[in-house]
Amino acid sequence: MSRTQTSTTAGQENALGTAPIGKLLFSLAVPAITAQVVNMLYNIVDRIYIGHIPEIGTAALTGVGITFPIITLISAFSSLVAMGGAPRASIAMGEGNREKAERIMGNCFTALLALSVVLTAVFLVFQEPILWAFGASENTIGYAMDYMGIYVCGTVFVQISLGMNMFITSQGFAKTSMFTVIIGAVLNIVLDPVFIFALDMGVQGAAIATVLSQAVSAVWVLAFLLGKRTILRIKARCMAIRWNILLPVLGLGVSPFIMQSTESLLSVVLNTSLLRYGGDTAVGAYTVIASIMQVINLPLQGLTQGAQPITSFNYGARNMERVRQSVRLLLTCTLTYSVLFWLAIMLVPQVFVGIFTSDAQLMDTAVWAARIFLFGCFSFGAQTGFQQSFLALGQAKASLLLALLRKIVLLIPFIYILPLFFEDKLFGVFVAEPVADILAATTTTVTFLLWARKNLRDKPAKN
Predict the structure, then answer these.
(1) 304 or 11: which carries more pLDDT confidence?
(2) GO CC annotation: what is one (predicted)?
(3) Contact between 367 and 63 (Cβ < 8 Å)
(4) Which of 78, 101, 143, 413 satisfies CB 3.0 to 4.6 Å to 163 for a cystine?
């Protein structure tokens, strides 16, 4: 490593431990938020274009919505590895152990490649029965299979672009991480109308555009992590699996994996319940609402990604005052954002719904349902901020239990139970979400504050 590169690397690490928290969070979070907002355009742009295809738009949009659980599950496996590995790599950097950090990253890269092979094979072989089980109908199964059959072929690109990009962010290179998704998303926006309309490929064209865009993003990530600017570099000697490295990574990554994979399970439960009580129109309405939830949640994820390197690095360096400042500022930002978005959804839901469909019946159902389903979204700031802070601090068990609480313990049972108490069964399904959101956020907040009072006291710095 050259003297100039060594100086740059040391400066990057030193900034995480010395720069003003507000300025540092802003410099890391803005690119991360931008990246998350642009990243959501991958699937949202597909839905916008698909929903406006003449004559078949509503059925095609509903069919693509059936594939959400699979798309979410593929992303969840990248989080299992990367969101377990990136905080541990940051903590190792804070401890001054760069060799350990590079071994963590190398093991994660190998694990992501192995998962890509397995996931691609499973979804290609079993795609039709999976889609029927996930709530497809005779009207939507064809569109769902057209999209899924192509999308899953790009699983390796998803794993690399999403998973390894976390290691770019965790080193403090937020702008580079942002460009990973900007490049892919802009390409997807350009290619979608070409494949869907100009080449008349419909749903299949949307999937092809997405896969090509993700491939370009994956190449960008690898070029950076194999290049000279990175602090941590992918090295062949660090890629051999060491279970004493990988198992703790997976242990920490289980929490975000469950958060995302249970989102997949949740989509299945919701789709089947909505199909039972409201038919394809209700499933289509949930497809639109799920897209709006991405608009809410991904910027929150961007904020927490920006805070993660600061929190993890200073926790590893035993600088508890900076850890506390980081968490407080993060919570201020996430709560402000979620409350403002809640106000917008309650006042003008039709503005958000109209982006995805012009079908009058679907719009009426989605506007009505959005006010119910998203009534508790003001609590997302506390839930996401404290949940992700547990991850940044390496607290796998607490994060896992809280991830299980909202969806497995509360929401999924409520989806089945609450309709029994309402004459309007569809209302009972939709109202389960805000009830679970508010209860889970309250529990997460109390749990974190009690833990922090005991564990984030000032401790002697390491020599």
Answers:
(1) 304
(2) plasma membrane
(3) no
(4) 78
Residue 273 and residue 90: Cα distance in Å, rounded?
42
The Cβ of residue 59 has, within 10 Å, a number of other Cβ atoms equal to: 19
Flag whether the pTM goes above 0.85.
Answer: no
What letter represents residue 357's amino acid?
T
d(CA 209, CA 413): 37
The three-state secondary structure class of 50 is helix
**CA distance between the termini of the chain:** 25
Is the CB of residue 122 less than 8 Å from the CB of residue 148? no
Collect contacts of 8-17 with beta carbons under 8 A, ≥24 apart. 8/229, 9/231, 12/171, 12/172, 12/173, 12/231, 13/93, 13/172, 13/231, 13/313, 15/172, 16/93, 16/94, 16/172, 16/309, 16/310, 16/313, 16/314, 17/94, 17/313, 17/314, 17/317, 17/319, 17/322
Amino acid at 259: M
Rounded distance between C-alpha atoms, residue 88 and residue 85, angstroms: 5
| Res 9 pLDDT > 60 | no
Helix (H) or strand (E) holding 396: helix 396-404
User: DSSP characters for 221-247?
Assistant: HHHHHTSSS-SS---GGG-S--HHHHH
> How far apart, in whole angstroms, are the C-alpha atoms of residue 403 and residue 411?
11
- What's the number of CA atoms in the CB half-sphere (13 Å) around residue 114? 11
Task: Look at residue 228 and give its three-state secondary structure.
Answer: coil
Average pLDDT, the chain: 84
pLDDT, tens digit, 9 for 90 and up, residues 360-403: 888 899 999 999 999 999 999 999 889 888 878 878 778 778 87
Do 76 and 260 touch, CB atoms closer than 8 A? Answer: yes
Give the separation between CA 322 and CA 310, rounded to whole angstroms. Answer: 8
What is the per-residue pLDDT for 462?
A: 46
- State the CB neighbour count (10 A cutoff) for residue 108: 31
What's residue 36's pLDDT? 64
Contact yes or no for 230/173 (Cβ under 8 A): yes
Is residue 67 a contact partner of residue 291, using CB atoms and an 8 Å limit? no
- Token pair listed for 299: 């910027």
Do 74 and 158 meet the contact criterion of CB atoms below 8 Å apart?
A: yes
Distance from C-alpha of 366 to C-alpha of 371, rounded to nearest angstrom: 9
